[in-house]
Automatic annotation (TrEMBL):
It holds the Pfam family Flavodoxin_1. Belongs to the flavodoxin family. Keywords: Electron transport, Flavoprotein, FMN, Transport. The lineage of its organism: Bacteria, Bacillati, Bacillota, Bacilli, Bacillales. Its cofactor is FMN. The keyword Flavoprotein applies. PROSITE patterns: FLAVODOXIN_LIKE. Low-potential electron donor to a number of redox enzymes. It comes from the Bacteria. This is Flavodoxin. The keyword Calcium does not apply. InterPro entries: Flavodoxin, Flavodoxin/NO_synth, Flavoprotein-like_sf. GO terms for molecular function: FMN binding; oxidoreductase activity, acting on NAD(P)H. Residues 3-140 form the Flavodoxin-like domain.
Length: 156
């Protein structure tokens, strides 16, 4: 499986979260490529089997500007086969907590095989570690189930 985590992070919270998720995949012997959004080869988007998006939230519940091209690519390209997940950090002081996660979630639900989402309050704390483990388990469970179904379709 060709899996990637694509993320953005201004002050490091989301970066810490996605690095932890990557380690959890690694412990399960699953290789996941980690890309900062600026390094992600957007032209190869449809070649991935699974993509997890990591984002903070900006402005009034908004998607950070650097993530908009990725958002539009998912909206317009043939990504129906891609299993997706969304994670993010935010601050519940703001009226729309992790608004960027919600925006990606709603769009990915329509265009891709959305498996699971996760929101973290500012930065990882002990209470979040189990939620991260659960995220990885659910992502893999739903992703492999979906990939198997796709393979079957191709074979039949
Ligand atoms: C100007 C500004 C606007 C923000 N707006 C929101 C918001 O609407 N909703 C939210 O949940 N968090 C908001 N945040 C909080 C950040 O998303 C949060 O601190 C996040 O953990 C930063 O992630 P990073 O360390 O990966 O950059 C805002 C922060 C700043 C500085």
């Amino acid at each position: 499986m060709n899996l990637a985590i694509v993320y953005t992070s201004k002050t490091g919270n989301t970066e810490e979260l996605v690095s932890f998720l990557k380690d959890l995949f690694f412990k399960k012997k699953i290789t996941v490529q980690l890309f900062r959004i600026e390094q992600f080869p957007l032209q190869d988007l449809t070649a991935f089997d699974g993509i997890i998006i990591g984002t903070y939230t900006w402005g009034d519940g908004e998607i950070p500007a650097e993530m908009l091209a990725l958002y539009r690519a998912f909206e317009t390209e043939n990504v129906e086969h891609i299993a997706t997940g969304v994670v993010g950090t935010g601050d519940s002081f703001y009226p729309h907590f992790c608004g960027a996660v919600d925006a990606f979630r709603d769009m990915l639900y329509v265009h891709s095989q959305l498996a699971v989402t996760l929101k973290v309050e500012i930065s990882l704390e002990t209470k979040d570690l189990d939620r991260c483990r659960r995220f990885v388990e659910l992502f893999l469970k739903r992703t492999t189930g979906f990939v198997k179904k796709e393979l079957l379709r191709t074979i039949l």
